[in-house]
Design a protein that fits this description.
Elements: H1 2-82, H2 87-102, E1 110-115, E2 130-134, E3 137-141, H3 155-165, E4 175-177, E5 181-182, E6 190-199, E7 205-214, H4 215-224, E8 232-237, E9 242-247, E10 253-255, H5 262-269, E11 275-280, E12 286-294, E13 298-305, H6 306-356, E14 357-358, E15 368-369, H7 381-500, H8 506-544, E16 550-553, H9 554-570, E17 575-579, E18 586-589, H10 591-608, E19 617-625, E20 628-635, H11 642-646, H12 665-676, E21 680-685, E22 691-698
Parallel strand pairs: 17-19
Antiparallel strand pairs: 1-2, 1-7, 2-3, 4-6, 5-6, 6-7, 8-9, 8-13, 9-10, 11-12, 12-13, 14-15, 16-18, 19-20, 20-22, 21-22
């Protein structure tokens, strides 16, 4: 047995190590490798963002320097207008301006101030000093201020003027970036220029200030931030749609439409934020593609082969797998020797235990137990001592078992006798329980009859309240009509008296006719109002007293029910708002049940919901959903807690027992909806958040199964 235990323990650790190793590899392949790839992409994205930020910073510095140079040129012009100077003095002043602007700005290849012909000096056609670096020394040159070069006719000057002058804001210094080009005049290098326009105090055009940026600096920035040797970076000038860090042999720039990723460029350029995506090249190679805006003029694109990133991840995976396998093998060898060492004392103790118990083959009752002789002092010593104490107790237990068996036989006879007596008692108790059950059944039936009677009384009480309210409401239009008729009768007698004594004038008769028309209108309007109330009450009252089903248009019928509730709402500070459905909802139901449900819910809201609300509002809306009509009744009152909501439909439960509440109103609503209307009702409420009832009714109760 102990050998099996050791083998099981060894097999457990071997299987555990193999499963752990396999799970680690599966986890690495399914999760960790993807996480490493994502982490690598995050690192590339950060490095890519650094390049974009550096290019953005340099381009912003170029724009700031061009603006500052334009402001200095405008100041030179205004100074010349206030205090005219000679050409030599102006040239010296312009040189000082250029040296002060560029001597500490080595990022620029050069720059200049270019005035329109005859603007600075009437007798001087051109005035265009230019600054550039030569052998790291600042040089101010006038070589481009010549009729041979004629800078006002150069493309960089005319194009910038046309674009800048089209800008509507004349109060600032418009900035225009030129397309990348090869400078054949002085620097003989690939560059791009940012131009800032100069204006006089009247906003008239003076010329422009320019700052040149050598594109070799851009290439250096991109090379310094390559995350992998095979990463390809492209800086795109958005206006000219050219790649400025790639130059053809004819000293021209490559256009973006010559690259396979050009199809995604338009979509990427429409996004302001950085974008990461996967791109498949025509040769089938997959690339991790990043796109980000770099300043106002440039887009930066980086393409890193996924295969190169996966090679690094795979190298790490091989290292992890090798190290994990070596650790697992070492651990299994260690566990094998450790188990053998741990189980050696156990083997010896188990052998002594087997020798201490002797059981004959034919008489298993006659068991001989000898004390264990164990002389070593280790962790098994307490166990052996405990076993010896157990062995001493076993003999006592065997003797006690014998005595207990004899006593058990005697107890068995007593048990049989008690069982017979118990069966007789159970028979008597059964008869008594049957009699009590019959009495309880009869009491329950009487209770149900009383409950049904009280429900019917609640229905008739509700109808009585409706009758009283409508009668009171009808009194008003009828009283107005009687008053108007009485007034008319007095007017008629007066006009007859004047006619009889010959004092009737045309003016009196005309006034009588006008008053007759007014009284007639008043009587007609009030009688029509009374007739409408009687008609609505008649239909609702007949429906509530009858359970006969008929077809109704739910919106029109509820409108009649609401008119019958008008007397009750009229003398209340609260209001009931009914939202008719957009399309008719046709029902075949017992209309009285529908009217009773709406009336009881409204009564319940008026009685309980608005005790702390001076101007409450009840909303009623209906709609059709498939073969169901949906009625929602909500109020903005005090709401109910969870305990009240749980007992809402229970009979005789009320929170207004002291004010005459019967506790049957909502119980009647629940029974009418579920039993007579074959629908469902749900209530949603919370303290301080009002109450909402949602009722779903079938469009035709005849299609519903009758409850058993």
């Amino acid at each position: 047995m102990h050998g099996k235990i050791k083998n099981r323990v060894i097999m457990f650790f071997v299987v555990f190590e193999l499963l752990a190793y396999l799970l680690i590899q599966i986890f690495y392949n399914l999760t960790y490798s993807d996480q490493l790839l994502q982490q690598k992409s995050v690192e590339i994205k950060r490095l890519f963002a650094v390049s974009a930020m550096q290019i953005t910073r340099i381009s912003q510095q170029m724009e700031d320097k061009a603006t500052a140079l334009a402001i200095s040129g405008e100041q030179l012009y205004r100074q010349q207008q206030r205090n005219p100077q000679t050409l030599e003095a102006l040239q010296q002043e312009a040189g000082i301006i250029l040296l002060s602007q560029f001597s500490d700005f080595t990022l620029a290849l050069g720059g200049g101030i270019w005035f329109e012909p005859f603007r600075l000096l009437p007798e001087q056609r051109l005035f265009g000093p230019y600054f550039f670096w030569q052998d790291q020394q600042p040089i101010v040159s006038w070589e481009l201020n010549s009729d041979e070069y004629n800078y006002p006719s150069q493309d960089w000057y005319t194009v910038a003027n046309a674009e800048a002058l089209d800008q509507p804001d004349q109060s600032l210094h418009p900035l225009v970036w030129s397309d990348p080009y090869f400078d054949e005049a002085g620097t003989f290098s690939m560059m791009i220029t940012v131009d800032a326009l100069m204006r006089d105090e009247n906003g008239d055009y003076l010329g422009m200030a320019t700052v040149d940026w050598a594109l070799s600096n851009l290439n250096q920035v991109l090379q310094n931030h390559r995350p992998t040797p095979l990463t390809q970076s492209y800086l795109i000038h958005r206006a000219s749609d050219t790649v400025v860090n790639l130059v053809n042999d004819d000293k021209s720039f490559q256009r973006t439409d010559s690259f396979y990723w050009a199809s995604q460029l338009a979509e990427l350029q429409s996004m302001q934020q950085a974008r990461q995506s996967l791109l498949t090249a025509p040769d089938g190679e997959s690339y991790l593609m990043f796109h980000q805006r770099a300043g106002h003029e440039f887009d930066l694109i980086s393409l890193t082969p996924l295969s190169e990133l996966k090679k690094e991840i795979n190298r790490f995976a091989v290292l992890v797998a090798s190290l994990g396998g070596f650790i697992a093998l070492a651990f299994m060898i260690l566990m094998f020797w450790l188990i053998r060492f741990v189980f050696s004392p156990f083997d010896k103790v188990l052998k002594l235990i087997n020798q201490s118990i002797q059981m004959p083959e034919h008489n298993q009752v006659d068991v001989k137990i000898n004390p264990i002789n164990y002389n070593e002092d280790n962790e098994f010593t307490p166990i052996v001592q405990a076993l010896n104490r157990v062995y001493l107790q076993i003999d006592n237990y065997l003797q006690q078992i014998t005595r207990n068996n004899q006593q058990l036989e005697r107890s068995r006879a007593d048990y049989l006798q008690l069982n017979e007596q118990l069966e007789e008692k159970v028979t008597i108790r059964t008869r008594e329980l049957e009699a009590k059950h019959q009495a309880m059944t009869e009491s329950l039936q009487r209770l149900k009859d009383a409950q049904q009677q009280m429900v019917e009384q609640e229905k008739h009480a509700s109808l009585g309240k409706l009758v009283a309210g409508v009668a009171h409401e009808i009194n008003t239009p009828l009283g107005v009509s009687v008053t108007a008729i009485t007034t008319l009768e007095h007017k008629v007698k007066n006009i007859i008296d004047k006619y009889n004594d010959g004092s009737l004038r045309k003016k009196d008769f005309q006034q009588f006719c006008d008053e007759l028309v007014q009284v007639s209108d008043i009587v007609t309007a009030n009688l029509e109002r009374a007739a409408l109330l009687v008609q609505s009450f008649k239909q609702v009252a007949v429906d509530q007293s009858s359970e006969q089903c008929r077809s109704i248009e739910l919106g029109d019928y509820l409108d009649q029910v609401i008119r019958s509730l008008a007397p009750k709402l009229k003398h209340s500070p609260h209001q009931l708002i009914f939202t008719p459905p957009s399309e008719p909802v046709q029902l075949y139901v017992a209309p009285g049940a529908v009217a009773q449900v709406i009336t009881n819910i409204v009564d319940n809201a008026l009685a309980h919901a608005f005790q702390q609300t001076p101007h409450g509002k009840i909303t009623l809306s209906i709609s059709q959903h498939g073969d169901k009509a949906k009625i929602i009744i909500a109020d903005n009152g005090a709401g109910m807690d969870k305990d009240t909501l749980r007992q809402l439909y229970e009979p005789f439960f009320t929170t207004a027992r002291n004010t005459g509440g019967s506790g049957l109103g909502m119980h009647l609503v629940y029974n009418l909806v579920h039993q007579q209307l074959k629908g469902t009702i749900k209530c949603k409420s919370a303290v301080g958040k009002g109450t909402e009832y949602t009722i779903l009714l079938p469009l035709d109760v005849r299609t519903q199964k009758t409850d058993a």
